[in-house]
Amino acid sequence: MCTTCGCGSGETRVEGEAHDHDHAHAFKPLLGQGQLHYGLAHRQAPGMSQGRMVRIEQDILAKNNSYAAANRRCFADRGIFALNLVSSPGSGKTTLLVRTILALKGGLPLAVIEGDQQTSQDAERIRTTGAQAVQINTGRGCHLDAHMVGHAMEKLELPDAGVLMIENVGNLVCPAAFDLGEAHKVAILSVTEGEDKPIKYPDMFAAASLMLLNKCDLLPYLDFDVDQAIAYARCINPRLEVIRTSATSGEGMDDWLAWIMRGAATARGQGATGRG
Amino acid sequence: MHEMSLAEGVLQLIEDAARDQGFNSVRTVWLEIGQMSSVEPEAMRFCFDAVTRDSIAEGAILEIIDTPGTGWCMACALTVPMQARYDPCPRCGSYQVQATGGTEMRVKELEVD
């Protein structure tokens, strides 16, 4: 565990990063190895008398949200369009990402942050395209948080006026709650999964702006009801955009790339205004 | 099991408050957990106990206030009650309902010494 900032209690590691960072921390960590750091004496509660009431009224995710806000400010200042790609394991995220990077190559600066529990295989796959990628291993963690992403951003040459793809840990539950500072969450649902996934895992589809219905080349061999899947997803999130994609046949890639280019153009415009 | 991270978030808020307001132990923690938030109250209790061990909040009682879900029905142009994100509007049956309340997860109040 990083005892400087308490980042990723346990086994979280950012690829290439030793735990000796010297950057400024927005808050002082209090816990390390089950110990308090700030030296308050721990004392027994006296008797049964009424304790003092302290109003807090703060979101449990306040810390994460403050890191997310810092990441978002950085993206805005530099005109970066950041996407948080979320799905179950095995939805074809990385393959789709590789294809997307190859299609965008030369058009837009791009970098990737990869999240997995273990191994840097995905980052290595991304690097074979020539794109910059940094791997975060979450160890026992089930999701990326904004603080980990902030650390990973320090390891990248950020793609000014371009695109940052953050591939979250394959998990349709936990990443929904954690804002990373992205412009949008993009949920990837593959047609080899059930069409009822959106209603089984509603939080993720509620949090996403776009759903990519992936592996559509396999539809002829499957009993997957596309209209029903989209209807379920829109029960959860009436504003959800949907694109049918296949990294294998290339179906839907033009629409997906156009969606990215539109977002990137907007982010670039805002960055330019901010800088101007 | 993101409740573990959330429980750590609760503890951080408590420890920040302890530093700012000078208290040394916590008797009770009140959380406000919306019916449509991504927190499972039982998992939160389990993780809270684990995370607060050897901390200023060790042994504190966790009180969870359940706040009801509400949504905005685009068809009715009204706020309507909602139990789950996939619920239709109870008035018109439409699924064009956007969750507006009951998604929060907040530390509301502490009883401290």
Please tell me about this protein's structure.
The complex is a heterodimer of chains A (276) and B (113). Chain A is 32% helix and 20% strand. Chain A has 276 residues and is of the alpha/beta class. Chain A has one domain (63-265): Rossmann fold (3-Layer(aba) Sandwich). An 8-stranded mixed beta sheet of chain A has the order 1-7-6-8-5-9-10-11, sandwiched between helices. In chain A, strands 2-3 form a two-stranded antiparallel sheet. In chain A, helix 1 packs parallel to helix 4 and helix 1 crosses helix 8. The longest helix of chain A has 23 residues, at 253-275. Chain A is globular. Residues 1-9 and 20-46 of chain A have low confidence and may be disordered. Chain B has 113 residues and is an alpha+beta fold. Chain B has a domain at 3-68 and 101-112: hypothetical protein PF0899 fold (2-Layer Sandwich), CATH 3.30.2320. Chain B contains 2 helices and 6 strands, in the order αβαβββββ. Chain B has helices at 3-21, 41-52; strands at 26-34, 61-67, 69-73, 78-82, 97-101, 105-112. In chain B, the strands form 2 sheets. In chain B, strands 2-1-6 form a 3-stranded mixed beta sheet, with helices on one face. A 3-stranded antiparallel beta sheet of chain B has the order 4-3-5, with no helix packed on it. In chain B, strand 3 (69-73) and strand 4 (78-82) form a beta hairpin. The longest helix of chain B is centred in the N-terminal third of the chain and has 19 residues, at 3-21. Chain B is elongated and about 50 Å long. Chain B starts with a helix and ends with a strand. The model of chain B has no long low-confidence stretch (mean pLDDT 94). The interface between A and B is large, with 49 and 50 residues.
